[in-house]
Amino acid sequence: MRLLLVLLLLAGPALAVQPDERLADPALEARARALSRELRCIVCQNESIDDSNAPLARDIRVLLRERLAAGDSDTQARAFLVARYGDFVLLRPPVRADTYVLWFGPFALLLLGGGVAFAALRRRRPAPAVPLSAEEQARLDALMREEPK
Amino acid sequence: MRRLLPLVPLALFLGLAGWFAAALLSGRDPRELPSALIDKPAPEFDLPSLAEGRRLSSEALRGQVVVVNFFASWCAPCRVEHPLLLRLARQEKVRVIGIAYKDRPEDSRRFLAELGDPYLATGIDRDGRTGIDFGLYGVPETYVIDKAGHIRRRIVGPVTPAMLDRELLPLLRALERS
Question: Which of residues 125-144 of B touch A (CB under 8 A)?
């Protein structure tokens, strides 16, 4: 029972990257892993190729490692895939004039909404207290003097 | 002006709702990606051909309008679109080139023997690298390449009769005339 528990604790998440795909050079392999975590699997669309079990994701992982082994920089390897699949392969879209709305839109909306909320809350601030009239004051004094029953 | 202010959220809501409704009802599949290669030169390839001892290269296609169709014997939607490819090749006299994607050549041959062979030539892309060069992410995929060797249209998934008549044939005729 205890052995089972230990084994369960040792079990990591299932990895999509198969042992035969890995590069012998640990530094190169680490670069490949880092890159593939940032690349979208086009078949599943919400997974990185590092996480995906799709055959195409595997093909691209292998291709990526070949290119790194052949001396491509990270940028070159990324550009190779962008040329074929478009910016959509990048899980982190590039910051460019046509993606400003995507990157900064939420902050602009937050500022706008915050501004509107701030203005509305200011307007709703209670009006300054009107002093009591003599009649009201007299009634209040009478109430205060009353003995508790 | 003051009196209209409370209507602003309603107007915003209606605008958004209209936008979403238009997107939902357009029938467009958001998972379908535009090709990164539209109006760019088609990737070069040089593949062994299904015909023993020959090769199929992008070089040989220069100067003509061609339809390049990626298929595989293991792909069910490919069977669905196959009669349309036959029609395209036999009745409409369009040059259709096949690329067998990650398929065993004997399986591709059996597939074409069984269903008919619409392809002028068929390349064998066993490791799928030519597919990746085209930005392929599933089979079937169909590319229209013009005389200058540029990709003009990509169809993801099976070609449908409506698409063939309304889009593909007019495009092919126009390219042929140019």
Answer: 127-129, 132-135, 137-138
pLDDT digits (tens, 9 = 90+) for B84-122: 999 999 999 999 999 999 999 999 999 999 999 999 999
Helix (H) or strand (E) holding B55, with range, is strand B55-57
B13 is a domain residue: no
- Mutate: best of A21, A41, A42, partner B, most B CBs <10 A: A42
User: Chain B partners of A87 at a C-beta cutoff of 8 Å?
Assistant: 36
Q: Are strands B96-101 and B66-71 parallel, antiparallel or unpaired?
A: parallel
Q: Identify residues of A whose CB sits under 8 angstroms from chain B CBs.
A: 42-43, 45, 55-56, 59-60, 63, 82-88
Range of the domain at B134: 34-177
Q: Is B19 part of a structural domain of the chain?
A: no
ipTM: 0.82
Q: Residue B109 is encoded by which pair of tokens?
A: 């041959």
Residues of B in contact with A123 (CB under 8 A): none
Tell me whether residue B23 is in a domain: no
CATH number for B106:
3.40.30.10
Question: Degrees (nearest 5) of the Cα angle B87, B91, B96?
Answer: 60
pTM value? 0.79
Backbone angles phi, psi at B153, to 5 degrees: -155, 145
Burial grade of B16 (CB within 10 A; 0-12, 13-18, 19 or more): exposed
**What is the total count of domains within chain B?**
1
Q: What is the pLDDT of residues A85-140, one digit of tens each?
A: 999 899 998 999 989 999 999 999 999 999 999 998 888 877 778 888 899 999 99
> Mind telling me how many Å the CA of B44 is from chain A's nearest CA?
13
